């Protein structure tokens, strides 16, 4: 049976904000404050791409609006589709590593908490894997977290 690629209506972008693209040791995760369906769950800061914007432009804008930081983007965490990772029938999200250039991240919009989570130092760092994967992520995000940890493990870095 051939698989038809779904046509997502809404493009979302999310950032795996790390302390350093070259040598990441921590990742910033955000707890959603609304809407009710996802409130209390953890996610990648980001949002919907607006008309006329590239995904990269949208993500830099969202990081400024939501966290109050200027950021540079690194490598993508590629999903199964050109639009990235499937979030729902209508939504897909492209995810990029990012590094803060200036500003201190704050809960300006959409979030009730931010947390810098240690990234695994090696594939045997069970504590870091457990802490990160054990967060109550928005369910669609969990495979993305697994993939990005694998990507860091394979490459050793989050560089573009
Ligand atoms: N930002 C973000 N959204 C996610 C993630 N996982 C996930 O399922 N979503 C969903 C939640 C929302 O339905 C949608 C993103 O919408 P959003 O509310 O963040 O977008 P936005 O900031 O542009 O806000 P708005 O235009 O809806 O007001 O994608 C994630 O990791 N980060």
From TrEMBL:
<dbReference type="InterPro" id="IPR000086">
    <property type="entry name" value="NUDIX_hydrolase_dom"/>
</dbReference>
<keyword id="KW-0234">DNA repair</keyword>
<dbReference type="InterPro" id="IPR015797">
    <property type="entry name" value="NUDIX_hydrolase-like_dom_sf"/>
</dbReference>
<keyword id="KW-0378">Hydrolase</keyword>
<dbReference type="GO" id="GO:0044716">
    <property type="term" value="F:8-oxo-GDP phosphatase activity"/>
</dbReference>
<dbReference type="GO" id="GO:0044715">
    <property type="term" value="F:8-oxo-dGDP phosphatase activity"/>
</dbReference>
<keyword id="KW-0227">DNA damage</keyword>
<keyword id="KW-0235">DNA replication</keyword>
<dbReference type="GO" id="GO:0008413">
    <property type="term" value="F:8-oxo-7,8-dihydroguanosine triphosphate pyrophosphatase activity"/>
</dbReference>
<keyword id="KW-0479">Metal-binding</keyword>
<dbReference type="Pfam" id="PF00293">
    <property type="entry name" value="NUDIX"/>
</dbReference>
<feature type="domain" description="Nudix hydrolase">
    <location>
        <begin position="8"/>
        <end position="139"/>
    </location>
</feature>
<keyword id="KW-0515">Mutator protein</keyword>
<comment type="similarity">
    <text>Belongs to the Nudix hydrolase family.</text>
</comment>
<protein>
    <recommendedName>
        <fullName>8-oxo-dGTP diphosphatase</fullName>
        <ecNumber>3.6.1.55</ecNumber>
    </recommendedName>
</protein>
<dbReference type="GO" id="GO:0006260">
    <property type="term" value="P:DNA replication"/>
</dbReference>
<dbReference type="GO" id="GO:0006281">
    <property type="term" value="P:DNA repair"/>
</dbReference>
<dbReference type="GO" id="GO:0046872">
    <property type="term" value="F:metal ion binding"/>
</dbReference>
<keyword id="KW-0460">Magnesium</keyword>
<dbReference type="InterPro" id="IPR047127">
    <property type="entry name" value="MutT-like"/>
</dbReference>
<dbReference type="GO" id="GO:0035539">
    <property type="term" value="F:8-oxo-7,8-dihydrodeoxyguanosine triphosphate pyrophosphatase activity"/>
</dbReference>
<dbReference type="InterPro" id="IPR020084">
    <property type="entry name" value="NUDIX_hydrolase_CS"/>
</dbReference>
<dbReference type="InterPro" id="IPR020476">
    <property type="entry name" value="Nudix_hydrolase"/>
</dbReference>
């Amino acid at each position: 049976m051939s698989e038809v690629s779904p046509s997502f209506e809404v493009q979302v972008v999310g950032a795996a904000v790390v302390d350093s693209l070259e040598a990441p040791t921590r990742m910033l995760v955000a707890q959603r404050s609304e809407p009710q369906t996802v409130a209390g769950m953890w996610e990648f800061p980001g949002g919907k791409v607006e008309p006329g914007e590239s995904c990269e432009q949208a993500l830099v804008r969202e990081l400024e609006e939501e966290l109050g930081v200027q950021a540079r983007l690194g490598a993508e965490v590629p999903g199964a589709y050109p639009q990235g990772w499937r979030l729902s029938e209508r939504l897909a999200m492209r995810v990029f590593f990012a590094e803060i250039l200036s500003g201190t991240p704050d809960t300006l919009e959409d979030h009730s908490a931010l947390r810098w989570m240690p990234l695994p130092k090696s594939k045997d760092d069970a504590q870091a894997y457990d802490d990160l994967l054990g967060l109550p992520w928005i369910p669609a995000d969990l495979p993305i977290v697994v993939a990005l940890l694998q990507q860091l493990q394979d490459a050793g870095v989050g560089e573009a």
